[in-house]
Write a structure and sequence with these properties.
cell inner membrane, four-stranded antiparallel sheet, flagellum, cell membrane
């Protein structure tokens, strides 16, 4: 045998175990990575489990209101037809508003009848009305009760004629 043939035989005999070792190491790392992803530590699972979905919103729909508006011409044809839903913080507030619904409607009718047609025609006027509705419903309906909190006023109908 020549020296050249002996050198090739040694290279092949060393190359096969090295390739076998590299393949075995790569498979081991891949298997560990899959096992690690399947079995996450308890700390990560409990953090994901602690995230609770937000509470369902509490809405209180009111019947529509039709009121004559204040205008400089004293034109009786200036009418506001508006419907809205209140977003409330909790079920107790909704129950309280429902129990005293005539008082709530009276406060809102008085507020709406003081509005100006010109002001309500703009976006800023509608936003101001939302804030005024929140303020007029905030005081307690009966002495001894807590004040009402209204998170938002959502218009369901708004016709200005």
């Amino acid at each position: 045998m020549s020296d050249n043939a002996k050198a090739k035989g040694r290279k092949r005999s060393i190359l096969v175990p090295v390739l076998l070792f590299v393949t075995l190491a790569a498979c081991s790392v891949a298997g560990y990575a899959v096992w690690r992803m399947m079995n996450k530590p308890e700390g990560e699972k409990s953090a994901a489990a602690k995230v609770e979905p937000p509470a369902a919103p509490v809405f209180f729909a009111l019947d529509t209101f039709t009121v004559n508006l204040v205008n400089p011409d004293n034109d009786p044809d200036r009418v506001l037809y508006v419907g809205f839903t209140l977003r409330l913080p909790d079920e107790d507030t909704r129950r309280r508003l429902n129990d005293y619904l005539p008082e709530v409607r009276s406060r809102l009718l008085l507020l709406l009848s003081r509005q100006s047609a010109g002001a309500l025609a703009t976006e800023q006027g509608k936003q101001a009305l939302v804030e005024q509705i929140k303020q007029v419903l905030a005081p307690p309906l009966v002495t001894g009760q807590p004040p009402q909190a209204v998170n938002d006023v959502l218009f369901t109908a708004f016709i200005l004629r």
